[in-house]
Amino acid sequence: MSTQEHTDQGGSGGTDALDLVIVGAGFGGLYAIHRARQLGLSVRAFEAGDDVGGTWYWNRYPGARCDVESVEYSYGFSEELQQEWVWSERYACQPELLRYAQHVAERFNLRHAITFGTRVRSAIYDDVAQRWRVSTSEGEEISARFLVLATGCLSATNVPDIPGLDTFAGRILHTGRWPREEIDFAGQRVGVVGTGSSAIQAIPLIAAAATELVVFQRTASYSVPARNRPLTAPELDRIKSDYAGFRARNRAMPGGFGADLGWNTASALDYTAEQRDALYEERWQRGGFAFLGSFGDTSVNKAANDLAADFIRRKIKSIVNDPAVAEALCPEQPVGCKRMALDSGYFETFNRDNVKLIDISKHPIDHVDSTGLWVNGQHFELDMLVLATGYDAMTGSYTGIDIRGRDGRALKEEWAGGPLTYLGLGVPNFPNLFIVAGPGSPSVLTNMVLAAEQHVDWIVECIDYMNTHGLATIEATAEAAHEWVEHVNGIAALTLYPTCNSWYLGANIPGKARVFMPLLGFPDYEVRCSEVAAAGYAGFEVG
Ligand code: N01
After folding, report:
1. Is the pLDDT score of 45 beyond 90?
2. Whose CA is closest to atom 16 on ligand 1?
3. Predicted pLDDT at 12
4. Share of the chain above pLDDT 70, in %
């Protein structure tokens, strides 16, 4: 553990007088420290990693880069910060994002509040004292009035339960827990399991460095070219000349980003085949999520979606030389139903002589032995195994902590049938607990930095309200939370999102309840959050 000095600036000193414990020092946790301190609240944060950055601390795999444009995927709370920071590329790479998080921590003097290399093991609500009693992996016990979970939507890694995995003699790496040191793939036979966003970024770089790469694919993914490139000074100047306006335009978008991408609201079905292809092609060439904005009904109308899917499949077949490999790389599910990836040379990588694609959709990996993997009676000799197998998304980082609310109720058990939150912020029977970008909020379907800022602002303003009104506790009502989960799933049901086995639905984790977890539509959500607050926190019990 590396413990920074953690005297409470603006707070009342001793550990037992703490107002807030924040779990996590990623983008959400960092901003929560900053805002809490601005209000004079005493705060401590615990972070499992040895540094700030969250996702961008852990995901150091080759090619890791954000797929929301850097000028958007950044804090908007400080005009000085957004004016002084200079993003170098259209999509920031992991090292640059980590440097940004470190810069923010230093610029706003946040490190002193964070205890690094320390996990929160349990948080138990003491009904009598009306405080959360928190225990850490380093044996520290503290208490605070409020518990803020900023542990992230995609941070509890999913390591598949493949028989014999622990007998593999070579190195096993998970993309979401990538080591700090440089991994040298030279001379190595590498296996990659998974073909989601992480794998799609890592595969071209691993292929270029390794002797041999075998990709084990269970479900083919849609990907469009990112077309990453350096940002020019005039481009940055244009945005910085009215950054507030740029942020406001993005905030008004359904996903909280992409205001300048040009979202066509017309139906794909109203265009001729030639017109449609011209539009798809223009967006394919532009790169990024503009492709999803080609037509207004791609995510809600199966016939329209089929047209976008057909275009991408034709692209894959035009890029990949071997027709059988190309066919295997063509996804079957609707476009966007699982999160679409952005790539830099992913499909082209399968034209390399040292890359092999193994379709495991019909024959899963049978077992692992000391020298490799077995699939359908065939052995693949490997020196290194990369698990790009994703996350127990949207709930795993919360249920992985022993959190107990009123009457000893365990969060993990309460959520066995799916996460129950009101607004993705509060949980019935868990007073004074707040989640940053929790299930039931737009979170992963938006720009995550914006989502974190909006939640943190709401949470600290709520705490301020409680303090000025002499209130001790706030707790979502069960009725409001159940209605909210229905609302979230009702909106999703109007779209194609629930029609495939995505992590949005928990479908990637065996045995996990199938519930659509993120909320579609950032602007309406933000209005709803403000209305709830203005109505004295309607749907919450405050006392
Ligand atoms: O994880 P994933 P990810 N046997 O869950 C496969 C964000 N992100 O880390 O689809 C064999 O998407 C699994 O197969 P299937 C982004 O939101 C953003 O790639 O379940 N295979 C799938 O192919 C993204 O969506 C960025 O059938 C197994 C893969 O592993 C999210 O993080 C970059 C398996 C997991 O894909 C997660 O992405 C990276 C098994 N037992 C990530 N278990 C950017 O900003 C799982 N798989 C660019």
Report:
1. yes
2. 197
3. 35
4. 97
Q: Is 1 a residue whose pLDDT tops 80?
A: no
Distance CA 516, CA 294 (A): 25
Q: Per residue in 71-129, pLDDT tens? A: 999 999 999 999 999 999 999 999 999 999 999 999 999 999 999 999 999 999 999 99
Nearest Cα residue to atom 25 of ligand 1: 339
Instruction: Measure Cα distances from 67 to 92, 344, 384, 451 in Å.
Output: 8, 11, 27, 15
Alpha carbon of 198 to ligand 1 centroid (Å): 6
Model's pTM, two decimal places? 0.96
Q: Is 340 in the pocket of ligand 1 (CB under 6 A)?
A: no
Q: How far does residue 490's CA lie from ligand 1's centre (Å)? A: 25
**Ligand 1 center from residue 360 Cα (angstroms):** 15
pLDDT for 310: 98
Class of domain 3-154+393-538: alpha beta
The verdict on the CB of residue 156 being under 6 Å from ligand 1 is: no
CB of 132 within 6 A of ligand 1: the answer is no
Nearest to 509 by CA among 68, 35, 183, 156: 156
Phi, psi (rounded to 5 degrees) for 97: -65, -35
Q: Which helix (H) or strand (E) holds 44?
A: strand 43-46
Q: How far is the CA of 350 from the centre of ligand 1 (A)?
A: 19
Best mutation site among 59, 89, 198 for ligand 1 pocket (most ligand atoms within 8 Å of CB): 198
Close Cβ partners of 379 (under 8 Å, ≥ 6 residues apart): 369, 371, 372, 373
CA of 196 from ligand 1 middle (Å) equals: 4
Type of residue at 66: C
Query: Average pLDDT, whole number, for the chain?
Result: 96
State the distance from the centre of ligand 1 to the C-alpha of 228, rounded, in angstroms.
21
CA 244 to CA 250: how far, in whole Å?
Answer: 10
- pLDDT of residue 11 exceeding 50: no
- Nearest Cα residue to atom 40 of ligand 1: 160
For ligand 1, the distance from its centroid to the CA atom of residue 161, given in whole angstroms, is 15
Q: Is 160 in the pocket of ligand 1 (CB under 6 A)?
A: yes
Q: How far apart are CA 67 and CA 341, in angstroms?
A: 8
Tell me the three-class secondary structure of 212-240, residue by residue.
Answer: EEEEEECCCCCEEECCCCECCHHHHHHHH
Q: Where does residue 49 rank: exposed (0-12), middle (13-18), buried (19+ CB within 10 A)?
A: middle
Identity of the amino acid at 536: G
pLDDT in tens, 114-152: 999 999 999 999 999 999 999 999 999 999 999 999 999
Of 58, 357, 376, 389, best ligand 1 pocket probe by most atoms within 8 Å of the beta carbon: 389
Domain map (residue ranges) of the chain? 3-154+393-538
**pLDDT value, residue 17:** 78
Q: What is the pLDDT of residues 251-293, one digit of tens each?
A: 999 999 999 998 999 999 999 999 999 999 999 999 999 999 9
Output the pLDDT for position 16. 62
Across 329-336, average pLDDT: 98
Q: Which residues of 516-531 are buried (b: 16+ CB within 10 A; e: fewer)?
A: bbbbbbbeebbebbee
